[in-house]
């Protein structure tokens, strides 16, 4: 049984901790936020991630998973340390590495015996080389440590599925020394292992997210062209997706990509490229298309409601996508802010989150949220929204406009119920 300290009890740290414990390792997950650790030690889960609570509870009961806020003590007592702290964006688009710096300082000041330090956080190319150099600069002999870059590819809302059925596990190393332990650590993962350099692993992570974002912006641009020619975009997506060289994944057109990863990782990659004088025309275009999606959908709404001032608009879904409670860089919140700017009275409903935003009214009941609304906007594709009782919806709204901002509704069904269906790239 391998003993490991996971630093950070956020979306990645908690999921990784639970999975590594399930694989048979003994995991201590630490966080500086005492309230999070207190919650976890009381059996409560600070985030919404389907199935995570049960998996944590099971492994805690089996004695394989522990939580603590004594970071130094945990580092001292474990020879493997996995870093899963945040790397949020700075104002200029580069990555804020202050949490990484802090934990590296803590490890360096605590180290007494051999450690494998695994960076799971998404960090810009060159960061793990820099961490390696810090250890050397602090006088720590090369025999005392190995730095490993081990980026994470899970999606929120699907985190457990992704972590137990990964497409790949990527390890960037400087020597072969930690490889045997790394293989053992992820023994339960059963995925192709990719070994590369420290910076190679970092680039695989950024290139993956940049490619996914590119697919989404491509889909959104094609959907605009379909819209102009009165073509059903979903037919085009199906036609595209059946070509195995293209694939159907990440071709869903809509409000665009948000969340704590795709936007920040794209900006950070752009920043890394510019630092080395590499042009990023494609990445720039991907971000540009994404940034204009909200305006595009508001223009659609304006075709039927030219003046939004005083209108009651209900938005279903406030997180950045379904099956999560994460509001970071949510396109829905950006849309809500635009609606408020235009003078609309905004009401919201979300299955998980009660949105606390000034000038908006959050509801606990999906149908109550639409009473006397002029328009309803579907901002995330929760299954319960797609399966709504449209006759009930029609009976409650004052005007009957449904703006499908995630291309997830059947326009025909909506129209049959006497509602007006709006979308981009809809016939
Ligand atoms: N969220 C995702 O779906 C996802 C997927 C893949 C990769 N990533 C990357 O993983 C990293 C973590 O993302 P997240 O969404 O889990 O972040 P998060 O903000 O949910 O969690 C980070 C946690 O680290 C803790 N922390 C910060 N400094 C600490 C320290 N010195 N000691 C102990 N704990 C500390 C924070 O208190 C917080 O609880 C980021 O680099 C992100 O880009 C995220
Ligand atoms: O066809 C699609 C697919 C997604 N989205 C949007 O794109 C955003 C991101 O979605 P998704 O990638 O599913 O969520 P994340 O949890 O942010 O996961 C991404 O970011 C993680 C953090 O780096 C990576 O680990 C994952 O592999 C990568 O998919 C969301 O706003 C989605 O609504 C679309 O608009 N169209």
From TrEMBL:
Binding residues for substrate: 153-156, 205, 250-254, 258, 321
For the keyword Thylakoid, the answer is no
This entry's Enzyme Commission designation comes to 1.1.1.22
Q: Which reaction does it catalyse?
A: UDP-alpha-D-glucose + 2 NAD(+) + H2O = UDP-alpha-D-glucuronate + 2 NADH + 3 H(+)
Could you list this entry's UniProt keywords, alphabetically sorted.
NAD, Oxidoreductase
- Pfam families in the record: UDPG_MGDP_dh, UDPG_MGDP_dh_C, UDPG_MGDP_dh_N
Q: Name one GO biological process term.
A: UDP-glucuronate biosynthetic process
Q: In which pathway does it act?
A: Nucleotide-sugar biosynthesis; UDP-alpha-D-glucuronate biosynthesis; UDP-alpha-D-glucuronate from UDP-alpha-D-glucose: step 1/1
Active-site residues, Swiss-Prot/TrEMBL:
261
- Identify the enzyme class: oxidoreductase
- Locate the residues binding NAD(+): 31, 36, 87, 122, 156, 264, 328
Q: Please list the residue ranges annotated as the UDP-glucose/GDP-mannose dehydrogenase C-terminal domain.
A: 314-411
Listed GO MF terms: NAD binding; UDP-glucose 6-dehydrogenase activity
**Does the keyword Oxidoreductase feature in the UniProt annotation?**
yes
Family of this protein: Belongs to the UDP-glucose/GDP-mannose dehydrogenase family.
Protein's name according to its UniProt entry? UDP-glucose 6-dehydrogenase
């Amino acid at each position: 049984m391998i003993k490991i300290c996971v630093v950070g009890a956020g979306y990645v740290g908690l999921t990784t901790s639970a999975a590594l414990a399930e694989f048979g390792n003994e995991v201590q997950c630490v966080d500086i936020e005492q309230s999070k650790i207190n919650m976890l030690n009381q059996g409560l889960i600070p985030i919404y991630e389907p199935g995570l609570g049960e998996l944590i509870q099971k492994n805690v009961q089996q004695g394989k998973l522990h939580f603590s806020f004594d970071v130094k003590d945990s580092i001292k007592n474990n020879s493997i340390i996995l870093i899963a702290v945040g790397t949020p964006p700075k104002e200029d688009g580069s990555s804020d590495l202050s949490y990484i710096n802090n934990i590296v300082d803590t490890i360096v000041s605590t180290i007494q015996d051999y450690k494998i330090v695994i960076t799971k956080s998404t960090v810009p190319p060159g960061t793990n080389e820099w961490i390696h150099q810090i250890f050397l600069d602090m006088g720590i002999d090369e025999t005392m440590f190995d730095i490993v870059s081990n980026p994470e590819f899970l999606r929120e809302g699907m985190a457990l599925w992704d972590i137990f059925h990964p497409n790949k596990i990527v390890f960037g190393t400087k020597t072969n020394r930690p490889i045997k332990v790394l293989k053992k650590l992820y023994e339960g993962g059963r995925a192709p292992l990719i070994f590369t350099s420290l910076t190679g692993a970092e680039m695989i992570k950024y290139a993956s997210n940049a490619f996914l974002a590119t697919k989404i912006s491509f889909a959104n641009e094609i959907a605009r062209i379909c819209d102009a020619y009165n073509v059903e975009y979903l037919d085009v997506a199906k036609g595209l997706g059946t070509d195995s060289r293209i694939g159907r994944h990440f071709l869903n057109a809509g409000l665009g990509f948000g969340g704590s990863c795709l936007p920040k990782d794209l900006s950070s990659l752009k920043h890394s490229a510019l630092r080395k004088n590499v042009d990023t025309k494609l990445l720039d275009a991907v971000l540009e298309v994404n940034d204009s999606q909200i305006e595009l959908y508001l223009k659609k709404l304006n075709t039927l409601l030219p003046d939004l001032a005083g209108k009651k608009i209900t938005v279903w879904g406030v997180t950045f996508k379904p099956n999560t409670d994460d509001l970071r860089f949510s396109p829905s919140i950006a849309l809500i802010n635009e609606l408020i700017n235009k003078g609309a009275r905004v009401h919201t409903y979300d299955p998980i989150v009660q949105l606390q935003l000034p000038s908006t009214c959050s509801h606990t009941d999906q149908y109550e949220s639409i009473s006397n609304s002029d328009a309803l906007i579907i901002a995330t594709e929760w299954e319960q929204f797609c399966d709504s009782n449209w006759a009930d919806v029609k009976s409650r709204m004052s005007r009957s406009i449904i703006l499908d901002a995630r291309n997830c509704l059947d326009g025909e069904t909506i129209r049959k119920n006497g509602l007006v269906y709006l979308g981009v790239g809809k016939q």
